[in-house]
Write a sequence for this structure.
């Protein structure tokens, strides 16, 4: 490994305290850039121009590299040359004002209301497991919460009388989200009649428990939704986040304002929420093409 790259790797580990995976990505990007320079008999890595770096980035794009990969390479090079500049190894940073390519906004994968009904009807509500699983699925769709928020809920976070739940990443960041009557009904049944079937320790506060009486894990819930997806025979890739996406889009399609949806989702930036408007706009285009005589 080039001694400068080796020194940069030590800096990332000791000073920046980055994860091993992140450091490996940075170093791999730098090695690939070095190989590109050597294979094409170009300048040394410490003597490159901004134009040469742009040429390399175009080379990556011609190879079919994704926008995210190209952006990560820019971040790796920028971090490396900043380090070299601060160390006094180079006098000018060739990545100054180098812009990352704009990420293409991907339209979220969602379920139709009918597909939601099919999926949520899969758990067998004649069993305690089925009641628990249906409660979780109904809550994901009713509140649009993340799976991490779902499994972190405590019994005290649920207000069945007023119909809302409290989600919080920390004590200083609490979010109150309303839930509909169907979710309230199934949660009432689960909490009153079935949660005790899983409970092993009366001090356990988690709302959703596994067979060991412990808080359900993210992996455990992934297995649950995967099994019901297969059972529902819906020809789409369904993840816990699919229900969150569907929640947001269905609200917007039925007249909810963007700010309210942003607040319910817990997005700090409304631009994150705006991605869901792409789905509603695509739906409008479809309706127009089908209905307008000159479409």
């Amino acid at each position: 490994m080039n001694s400068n790259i080796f020194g940069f790797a030590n800096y990332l580990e000791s000073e920046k305290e980055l994860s091993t995976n992140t450091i490996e990505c940075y170093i791999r990007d730098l090695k690939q850039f070095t190989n590109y320079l050597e294979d094409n008999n170009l300048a040394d890595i410490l003597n490159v121009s901004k134009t040469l770096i742009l040429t390399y980035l175009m080379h990556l794009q011609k190879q079919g590299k994704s926008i995210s990969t190209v952006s990560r390479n820019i971040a790796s090079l920028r971090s490396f040359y900043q380090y070299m500049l601060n160390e006094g190894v180079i006098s000018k940073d060739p990545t100054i004002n180098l812009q990352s390519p704009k990420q293409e906004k991907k339209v979220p994968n969602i379920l139709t209301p009918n597909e939601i009904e099919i999926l949520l009807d899969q758990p067998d509500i004649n069993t305690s497991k089925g009641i628990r699983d249906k409660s979780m699925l109904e809550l994901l769709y009713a509140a649009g919460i993340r799976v991490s928020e779902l499994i972190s809920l405590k019994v005290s976070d649920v207000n069945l009388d007023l119909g809302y739940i409290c989600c919080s990443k920390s004590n200083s960041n609490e979010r109150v989200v309303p839930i509909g009557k169907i979710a309230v009904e199934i949660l009432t049944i689960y909490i009153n009649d079935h949660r005790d079937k899983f409970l092993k320790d009366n001090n356990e506060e988690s709302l959703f428990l596994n067979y060991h009486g412990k808080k359900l894990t993210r992996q455990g819930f992934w297995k649950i939704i995967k099994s019901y997806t297969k059972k529902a025979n819906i020809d789409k890739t369904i993840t816990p986040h699919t229900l969150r996406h569907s929640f947001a889009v269905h609200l917007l399609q039925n007249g909810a304002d963007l700010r309210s949806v942003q607040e319910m989702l817990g997005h700090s930036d409304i631009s994150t929420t705006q991605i869901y408007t792409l789905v509603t706009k695509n739906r409008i285009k479809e309706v127009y093409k089908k209905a307008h005589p000159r479409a």
